[in-house]
């Protein structure tokens, strides 16, 4: 048995519930299966607990040979957990694993405490952090989908203390009695509202395609430093804290590249191991920003002991969204937090990036600013490799044509000729090249591919 108790002495009299008791059950083959140690998984669970404002007053690693249908962990461990709960009197028991409704109900009866599993915990965090209307709708949809399988289970154990999400009732109620019909009706209404949100987001994407600004999306494991990197690159003021899921709602800002060109940088929600399937489905419209991106920066906390396992988790989520095959060529790995590495390890990370060239990875520190100029230069090179460079000549006095060129291409250089004509050297995305040629009466060069390598962005006429 491996357990860690804080303040474990027997109280002289009953105390008010406080904090959380975190239990991480792990299969004995877990370490070899995903490369992540049970100890690291337990620390992550404690971090998730802290993210909803609850301190972990006790934590416990429980090895499991095979999950028990009734309670997941064996009867002996359940009895031991009940003794610990009686001793420390936690507000809630966080079970860092998936529990069926029956398992959750049985555990609550046997240990006499409120129990929430990993999915419920992450949903609770999302419920507290989502700020935009779309984000709150998506979280509510995910929560109700999860809740429907548990029928009348409520979440007032956290509402009473922190004003939790409160989907179907107000704080202070001991239980919210609802049935499948009511939940189903609410889910239908939310889906209808989200369709309108998705339509609006699609219109925004179409409008952005009319402007020659490529999209660069940040993805990565939660707390990898995406928001700090976002702020450093764009000089924005997005919430960036040393906390899991500090950022939930997508944010976009302009990014100026070394050659003067502009791009749009998008910060997205962080991924995590065993991300609830309800959340992947609910946030699909938000994550479509990643699918629409020209370049994806996969930000890794290279100083984290489980950095490699986190990389695999992120790639699994991207794969579930359909981001695979040739699309992976658009990904650049960003090795963040090299300032936390030893001098030798940091030097090795820099050498690895230098040898890899345009393929990455790029070693950076979003805090100190090291490597950021190189990262922006690499993004610019990768974007240009996807585009056609051409020379345009605008007739003298054709202000409308000149304005069109600036609005629909990235102007790399301009030369005003003596006869009043303007000669422009421009960079054009492959899917827009033919539109630009036809507008200026240019013929397509021989040997030019008929279709762009990446077909995911539609031409906006």
Would you summarize the structure shown here?
By secondary structure, the protein is α/β, with parallel strands linked by helices. The chain has 4 domains: 2-113, Rossmann fold (3-Layer(aba) Sandwich), CATH 3.40.50; 125-194, no CATH class; 212-385, Rossmann fold, CATH 3.40.50.300; 388-439, no CATH class.
Keyword list:
461 residues; alpha/beta; Rossmann fold; 4 domains; five-stranded mixed sheet; 16 helices; elongated
Q: Gyration radius, to the nearest Å? A: 26 Å
Structural class: alpha/beta
What string, H for helix and E for strand, traces the elements in order? Answer: EEHHEHEHEHHHHEHEEHHEHEHEHEHEEH
CATH architecture of the largest domain: 3-Layer(aba) Sandwich
CATH topology of the largest domain, by name, is Rossmann fold
Strand proportion: 15-25%
Query: How are strands sequenced across the largest beta sheet?
Result: 7-8-6-9-10-11
Give the termini distance in whole angstroms. Answer: 65 Å
Number of helices: 16
General description of the model:
- The termini are far apart.
- Helix content is 42%, strand content 18%.
- It folds into four domains: 2-113, Rossmann fold (3-Layer(aba) Sandwich), CATH 3.40.50; 125-194, no CATH class; 212-385, Rossmann fold (3-Layer(aba) Sandwich), CATH 3.40.50.300; 388-439, no CATH class.
- It is built from 16 helices and 14 strands.
- It is of the alpha/beta class and 461 residues long.
- The chain has helices spanning 30-34, 38-51, 75-88, 101-111, 118-129, 133-148, 156-162, 180-209, 226-234, 277-282, 284-291, 307-320, 343-356, 372-385, 399-408, 430-439, and strands at 2-5, 20-27, 56-64, 92-95, 115-117, 215-220, 251-256, 262-267, 295-301, 331-336, 362-363, 388-394, 410-416, 422-428.
- The chain has a six-stranded mixed beta sheet, sandwiched between helices. A five-stranded mixed beta sheet has the order 1-3-2-4-5, with helices on both faces.
- The radius of gyration is 26 Å and the shape is elongated.
- Helix 5 packs antiparallel against helix 6.
């Amino acid at each position: 048995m491996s357990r860690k108790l804080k303040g474990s002495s027997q109280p002289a009299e009953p105390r008010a519930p406080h904090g959380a008791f975190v239990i991480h059950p792990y299969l004995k083959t877990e370490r070899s299966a995903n490369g992540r140690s049970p100890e690291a998984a337990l620390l992550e669970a404690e971090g998730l607990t802290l993210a909803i404002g609850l301190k972990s007053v006790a934590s416990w690693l429980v090895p499991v040979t095979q999950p028990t249908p009734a309670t997941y962990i064996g009867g002996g461990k359940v009895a031991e957990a009940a003794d610990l709960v009686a001793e420390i009197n936690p507000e809630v028991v966080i079970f860092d694993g998936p529990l069926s409704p029956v398992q959750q109900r049985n555990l609550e009866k046997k240990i006499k405490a409120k129990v929430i599993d990993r999915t419920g915990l992450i949903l609770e965090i999302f419920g507290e952090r989502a700020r935009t209307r779309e984000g709150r709708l998506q979280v509510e949809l995910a929560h109700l989908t999860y809740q429907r399988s548990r029928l009348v289970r409520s979440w007032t154990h956290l509402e009473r203390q922190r004003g939790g999400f409160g989907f179907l009732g107000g704080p202070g109620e001991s239980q919210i009695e609802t049935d499948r019909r009511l939940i189903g009706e609410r889910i239908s209404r939310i889906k209808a509202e989200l369709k309108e949100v998705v339509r609006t987001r699609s219109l925004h994407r179409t409008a952005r395609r009319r402007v020659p600004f490529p999209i660069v999306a940040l993805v990565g494991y939660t707390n990898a430093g995406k928001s700090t990197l976002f702020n450093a690159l764009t000089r924005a003021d997005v919430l960036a804290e040393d906390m899991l899921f500090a950022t939930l709602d997508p944010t976009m800002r302009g990014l100026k590249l070394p050659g003067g060109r502009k791009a749009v940088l998008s910060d997205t929600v962080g991924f995590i191991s065993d991300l609830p399937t309800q959340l992947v489905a609910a946030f699909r419209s938000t994550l479509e920003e990643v699918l629409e991106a020209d370049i994806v920066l996969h930000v890794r906390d290279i100083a984290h002991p489980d950095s490699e396992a986190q990389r695999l988790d992120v790639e699994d989520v991207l794969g579930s969204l359909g981001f695979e095959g040739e699309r992976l060529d658009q990904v650049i790995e960003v090795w963040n937090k090299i300032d936390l590495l030893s001098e030798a390890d940091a030097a090795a990370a820099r050498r690895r990036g230098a040898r890899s060239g345009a393929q990455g990875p790029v070693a950076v520190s979003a805090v100190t600013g090291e490597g950021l100029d190189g990262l922006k230069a690499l993004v610019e090179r990768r974007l240009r490799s996807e585009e056609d460079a051409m020379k345009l000549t605008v007739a003298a006095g054709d202000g409308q044509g000149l304005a069109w060129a600036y609005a629909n291409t990235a102007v790399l250089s301009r030369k005003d000729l003596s006869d009043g004509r303007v000669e422009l050297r421009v960079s054009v995305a492959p899917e827009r090249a033919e539109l630009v040629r036809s507008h200026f009466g240019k013929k397509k060069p021989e040997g030019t591919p008929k279709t762009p390598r990446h077909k995911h962005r539609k031409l906006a006429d």
